[in-house]
Amino acid sequence: MRTEIITAALVVILAGCTVGPDYVRPNLAAAGHYHAVADKAASPASPAPALDTWWRGFDDPELVVIVERVLAQNLDLEASAARMEQARAAAQFAGASRLPEGSLDGDIARQRQSIVSPLGKIASAFPGYERKQTLSELGVGASWELDIAGSLHRRSEAADAEYQAAEAAHAGVRISLVAEAADAYFQVRGAQARIAIAQDQIRNESGLVDLVNVRREGGVATLRESSQAQALLLQAQASLPPLQRALAAQLNRLDVLMGAAPGTYASEIESAPAAFTLPAIDTAGGPAQLLRRRPDVIAAERKVAASNAVVGAAIAEYYPSFSLSSVLGLSSLQSGKLFTGDAFQPAAMLGLHWRLFDFGRVDAQVKQARGANREALLDYRASMLRATEDVENAIVALNELARQQALLEAEVKAHGQARDAAQEAYRGGAVSLLEVLDEDRQLLAARDLLAQVRADDARSAVAAFRAMGGGWSGALQ
User: Fold this and answer.
1) Model pTM score
2) What share of the chain is helix, strand, coil (3-state, %, to 5)?
3) What is the gyration radius of the CA atoms in the chain, in angstroms?
């Protein structure tokens, strides 16, 4: 009976108890739907793609190729993966610290003993004393820190949570890079469209200059009209360099995102067909889905869990810590007798460490840990608010850009008709060149703005997918 009681007591002691608060995931209230609602009248006909591969929803093969290259070759993504592996190793180390540790040590020392040293004077007086000595030692040791108060357990919990936060952060880098590549790609397409419009305008203005020159030679047009037409042509030509510069910058940006030197894929991207369709955005589930899909929200929640475990580790410092260690050793000064019973010298030790007087050091550590936990909780709540804000802004942008695009398309059509009519009237001498030039300027401005809005519409769709946490397989729970 006594043996059973002692055994049970040892089990309880060795199992220990884990002090500190057990982690409970914070319950963040999330609305069932977004405040901004997608405008059904302006919704694209293309269905909403899966969030994990939203870039395929644009039906643009070149965009798919670019994203696949980014995921395979981007250097920032590789660096993020390396950081995640470091966090994984730290978690493994913290977990291993809770287990016993064994070691094997051995050495052979050859020395010539001094006979005038204190030890030499005493030993040399005995018969058979040998000044030349060989000391052989071999030992197998084991040690184990008994996690009575659960300090090691809490630190392992914290390391696991930090690894999970690093895993979520890595997913966030992946999402950001895919979205950045798509954003740069649509800026390339927007710049190309604006360049084509400018070139078309240059051709129109060149024709107008020729027309004015012909009329001037016939004595119908004046030098002022010729100069005005030439100025408008030069204005259209001057609009090209900034657009070419913007195009080159975005192409270089894409190359770097794909882990290549600028200029590597530029010609391929420029020559690829520029047609794409805008997919619908599925907002079903509302903000609640952001708790499962947004990596920054997930990482923030894991930081709360890690800080909670650190509180427990700090509280554990109030309690004593115990350690067990033992050595099965062999030691001999005589050659050939190391592995004999006479050379066997085992040892065992039970260690105790208890901070009795530390003048409030542990108190300060606990307060610091609780403060960090409070900060992490507030950061978690703030990350959820920011995530919801991102989606709301993206929905509003999509709605308003769709309306603006519809209006601009009608405006371009009206300006085109007015411009053609003014030019025909000018040929017949019914209106002045000033009216033709004014219609040209308005048509160019409307067409250029329409090209920008179309690109911005696609970029807003990218921002919406990014805001909802799209771009990685699975969701961290």
Assistant:
1) 0.83
2) 65, 10, 25
3) 38
